[in-house]
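Title: Prediction job returns without error message
Component: structure pipeline
Severity: low
Priority: P3
Assignee: unassigned

Description:
Job completed but the reporter wants confirmation the result is attached to the right record. Sequence as submitted:
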Amino acid sequence: MSLTETLKQDMKAALRAGDKLELSALRMALAAIQRQEIELRGKLEDDAVHNVLGKLIKQGRDAEQQFEAGGRSELAAKEAAEIAVFERYLPKALTDDEIGKLIARAIETSAATGVRDMGRVMAAIKAEAGGRVDMSAVGARVREILSAG
């Protein structure tokens, strides 16, 4: 069963269970997936669905920070709960050690010598990591390593 079908089944289960938060989060995810499918004029593979969920998580984290800064802790908590729902459908994230090894491999295979080669390194990491890492955090680490080297 595809990830989209799993999301639909889980949405039906949340509806039956009366879990409003999960139902809302899953509806939001399925709407985002449907918008992407319409834009691309075709069904999304699981990797593309992971990317859509990753974007929703990133937007949710941004909103959570803004709500916290604005003193709206109840809305920040709602965003955090929705993020937790989305994260259940993503592949297991890489550990810091695995990320370090991945960065080292990408730098070696792309023959990067400085920050100007960062684009090639990041492309290699993105291709191999497949949405299992926070690319902005990885980018900072790569920039640090390439600046020092």
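Comment from assignee: result matches the submitted record. Residues 96-148 form a domain with the Arc Repressor Mutant, subunit A fold (CATH 1.10.10).
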